[in-house]
Amino acid sequence: MSQNSSTSKAFHTPNFLDQPKAVWATAFAAVVGFMSIGLVDPILTSISKGLSATLTQVSLLFTSYFFVTSVMMIFTGFISSRLGGRKTLLLGAFFIIVFSALSGLSSSVAELVSFRAGWGFGNALFVVTALSVIVAASRGGTVAAILMYESALGLGISAGPLLGAFLGAHSWRYPFFGTAILMTIGFVAIWLWLPKQPIPVKKTSVLDPIRALGHAGLLTTASSAFFYNYAFFTVLAFVPFVLDMSAHSVGMIFFGWGLLLAVFSVIIAPKLQIRFSGLQILFTVLAVFSVLLLVIAFGSKTDIIVAVILSGALIGICNTVYTEMALEVSGVEKHVASAGYNFVRWFSGVIAPFSAPLIAEHFGSQWAFMVAAVSLIIAPSILFVRRKTVGRFDHKFAVNPYIPPEI
Predict the structure, then answer these.
(1) More confident residue, 13 or 111
(2) How many domains does the structure of the chain reveal?
(3) Residue-level pLDDT at 234
């Protein structure tokens, strides 16, 4: 047997799809949870008209949601280490169900923004805990778990705009009710198929995620991801206003965007990681992404549509590489590292959706995307300057190559 064959066999992992019911139940609910990110994209203009709100006011739907999500990331480990993964997931799902339903009943933009904030609390509990539960319950170790999680992210983000467009064509309220119904199904699936998990002996402190960011590698990863995600959320939250198209059209555009995100995060990113280091991949992808943002800033409507859809592929690759770096670079417990990392990167979701329309109002929409393009120059610059802190992600896998699970 050749050395390459021996190496492949040594690092062979189970089939990606060969997972227990507990993982599939959690992944399904995670898909629904991630749907809430892009759900409002196709109906932003409908909400603006229906509630007589300005673009800046409507952008607060993202800002309030991600502000609470980001801050609550710090508390998820504290809560889950006392309740256990199963109860924390169910609690998060419960909050998503309640506040998504209340969002659909809103009579003013202020109510809708506040309910989206409550929704963000439920999603924070769910997002970090879902990743740790999938890591613990999946077959194939961390690699398979990350791919399963990123699959849920990609499918959720792609399905969200589609659901928002389909239901939003009848009323902007229906997508919120649809999410509540789907998460109820996810709640039941977790209740039935995810077994009770032992409560960790070691309790996580509220300060543990902040302390984790004291690790140079994790801080480097999170800081770079913050600027990358600023561009990501600018595309997600502001492009629908620039396109000014029907809910169905915007939904289809972002469905294509999310579909590429899912495919490239699960299939293409692992293959790239075999041949190139994490930093090499990010340097290249972030540079191409910045070019696409300039196309969105100055191109025709057709150019914008094509650039937005293509950006989904780049975002899918970045998400996978950044997530693996965050979980592996520090040696900190994965749920703690994930909480600290997500606290920093999701905070860009607070700033970008609010600043983009604000910049556009004062200087023009092109400047909103130019600022996002600059953030994509800052992101790899941080990685380059602090590359010695990220360990193996700064070089190819000369030893112990990364072998992705079978799809």
Answers:
(1) 111
(2) 1
(3) 94
Cα-to-chain-centroid distance, residue 78: 22
Mean pLDDT estimate for the chain = 85
The predicted-structure confidence for 157-183, as pLDDT tens digits, reads as follows 778 888 888 888 888 899 999 999 999
Residue 17: predicted pLDDT: 66
**Whole-number Å distance between alpha carbons of 156 and 279:** 27
4, part of any domain = no
Domain that holds residue 345: 21-194+205-389
Token pair of 217 as six digits: 């590698």
Say which DSSP state 43 is in: G
| Structural domain includes residue 3 | no
Please report where in the chains the tokens 């970008």 appear, as a residue: 352
383 vs 389: CA distance, rounded Å: 9
Q: Does some domain include residue 326?
A: yes
Check residues 120 and 286 and name the one with the higher pLDDT. 286
Confidence (pTM): 0.82
Crossing angle between the packed helical segments 109-137 and 334-346, to the nearest 10 degrees: 150
What residue spans of 169-277 are helical by DSSP H? 174-193, 208-212, 216-243, 247-263, 269-275
Identify the CA nearest to 213 among candidates 372, 330, 94, 96. Answer: 330
Nearest 5°: phi and psi at 51? -110, 10
Higher pLDDT, 26 or 154: 26
pLDDT-based confidence at residue 225 (cuts at 50, 70, 90) = very high
User: Within 10 Å of residue 16's Cβ, how many Cβ atoms?
Assistant: 21
Q: Is 290 within 8 Å of 307 (Cβ atoms)?
A: no
Give residue-wise pLDDT tens across range 77-90: 889 888 888 999 99
Report how far apart, in Å, the C-alpha atoms of 78 and of each of 12, 126, 285 are.
35, 13, 35
Measured distance CA(117)–CA(67) in Å, rounded: 8
**DSSP letter assigned to residue 267:** I
- CATH classification of the domain holding 106: 1.20.1250.20
CB–CB of 37/156 below 8 Å? yes
The encoded tokens of residue 289 equal 């992404």
Task: Provide the residue type at 71 as one letter.
Answer: V
Q: What is the DSSP letter of 173?
A: T
| Residue 26 in domain | yes
